[in-house]
Amino acid sequence: MFQKLFGSYKIILLYGLSLAGLLFLMRWLEFRLLILDHATELYAAAIAIIFMVLGIWLAKHLSKPKTVLVEKTVYVDQSENFVRNEKVLDELGISKRELEVLELMAQGLSNNEIAARLFVSLNTIKTHSSKLFEKLEVSRRTQAVEVAKRIGIIPL
Amino acid sequence: MFQKLFGSYKIILLYGLSLAGLLFLMRWLEFRLLILDHATELYAAAIAIIFMVLGIWLAKHLSKPKTVLVEKTVYVDQSENFVRNEKVLDELGISKRELEVLELMAQGLSNNEIAARLFVSLNTIKTHSSKLFEKLEVSRRTQAVEVAKRIGIIPL
DNA sequence: CGTAAAATCACCCGAAAGTATGAGTGATAA
DNA sequence: TTATCACTCATACTTTCGGGTGATTTTACG
Question: Does B53 contact A54 at a Cβ distance shorter than 8 Å?
């Protein structure tokens, strides 16, 4: 409140000056129109218009803008912004290679396909998957994938 | 709405009052220095105040509210609000029993476990899964689960 | 009532998956 | 230097999976 008042101090000064000018204009109009017929009516109309405009202007500039908050809900697909749970990955002691195997497993690849993809032997993949199952405390690849997705080490 | 504007209303009111005071001061000065007809002046002041208030009121009530769009991001937990894609299910001709098997498959259960769970023989589960693979156009259970989740017939 | 679709089960066989165990290599930390 | 660990690969063995085929029983529907 006070901060706002101080902030608009310059503006208020400006108002004061313009108001002073306006009053002088009034005085002048009064002096000029006093001689004419229906001078009072014209004078009053002029004052009415000028002050109404001033009022509008004041309201526009001194009032806080009317704001209407419109909430737009944005549904975000989790699979898009996946962040790997490195902590869990570390706690379970899952290595990089094992994670690679796990990811390919999740894509539905067979051990042979994974072996070919990673340029290693089938037995190597078997070893990796066995260790993976131990660490994830499962006994099948399908369960491994299930658990891995749930604990956030591979995307859903 | 009015509560929000109350702060600035006070400023404007204050300004209006000081303006009135100024006019009265002028009037007083005028009265003290020169003797003039003051009926017109008071009339003018009244008009000025009334129309300024009117202007303020008009501005307040006729101004369009500024709309501020606030985006609210909602992370959708797909597993919670899952709606089965019945259409696809029908198009692929997947039966109730097959769907049951598929769901248990997705949980990582072996055929034997599924058989025990559904109180049927292992061979029955094999038949179901075989037909499922045909309908889903896959050749492995992991792929079946993968596809099924993607096309929305089982929750992610 | 008859028929089609679904569900059930069986047997065989090969492929894939998983278990157990051992071992070699390279990088890194104690 | 030794020890540890990740990664690699291998052999042997068991279990599970998936394909193929065929059959019987339910269930649903016109």
Answer: no
For A84-139, the pLDDT digits (tens) are 888 888 999 999 999 999 999 999 999 999 999 999 999 999 999 999 999 999 99
Residue A125: CB atoms within 10 A of its CB come to: 24
Amino acid letter at B127? T
Within chain A, where are the H helices?
2-7, 9-33, 39-62, 86-91, 96-106, 111-118, 122-136, 141-150
Strand partners, A77: B76
A141 touching B (Cβ < 8 Å): yes
Give, in order, the Cα–Cα distances in Å from B12 to each of A10, A27, A66. Answer: 15, 24, 16
Residues of A in contact with B146 (CB under 8 A): 106-108
Contact yes or no for B11/A62 (Cβ under 8 A) = yes
Tens digit of each residue's pLDDT (9 = 90 or more) over B25-52: 655 555 555 555 566 666 667 767 767 7
Helix (H, G, I), strand (E, B) or coil at A97: helix
- 0.70 cut: is pTM over it? no
